[in-house]
Specification:
By secondary structure, the chain is α+β, with helices and mostly antiparallel strands. The chain contains four helices and four strands; from the N terminus they run αββααββα. Helix 2 runs antiparallel to helix 3. It holds the Pfam family Peptidase_A8.
Length: 159
């Protein structure tokens, strides 16, 4: 199972990273702003030199350092959880998203964001495909870890 998870994880990271970088290229080359669903969803080309919600704006070196630390941590966790397909997938999504944003920041000094939502009159911060990968991957890992812990508690109770 471990070998098949290595292959799956590698393919996931490569394909999803390619999609992310491709989308960012298309957005930065051809898009300014396009309203898709009135007062709800639009594609808006933004250069983000900060992190989530534009935290640490213009602190490129700090954000690169944080990204490198996160990349090492995620690679370590992925390597140590290759026996678990669900965790492998979760960590692979996070890794692909981190790499996509890291490459942007390293090469250009900023990240291309383009997904814009307005929810109940609130303009949600603009984000990108890599951000979705990171969030979905983290959710998968958290849920799997919670279920693992519950399984351990149930096992102890049944003894």
């Amino acid at each position: 199972m471990k070998k098949s998870n290595i292959i799956l994880s590698s393919l996931l990271v490569i394909v999803l990273l390619g999609i992310d970088l491709g989308l960012k290229y298309i957005v930065s080359s051809y898009l300014t702003s396009v309203n898709i669903i009135d007062n709800f969803f639009s594609l808006t080309y933004v250069l983000n030199d900060g992190a989530a919600f534009s935290l640490f704006a213009s602190r490129t070196y700090l954000l690169i350092l944080i990204a490198i630390i996160c990349l090492f941590f995620i690679i370590y966790e992925l390597k140590n959880n290759l026996d678990d397909r669900v965790l492998s997938i979760g960590y692979s999504l996070v890794l692909a998203g981190l790499l996509g944003n890291f490459i942007d920041r390293l090469i250009d000094g900023y990240i291309v964001d383009y997904l814009s939502f307005k929810i109940l009159g609130y303009n949600y911060p603009i984000f990108n495909f890599a951000d979705i990968l990171i969030v979905v991957g983290i959710i998968i890992v958290i849920i799997k870890e919670i279920l693992k812990e519950r399984g351990k508690k149930d096992e102890v109770r049944s003894k």
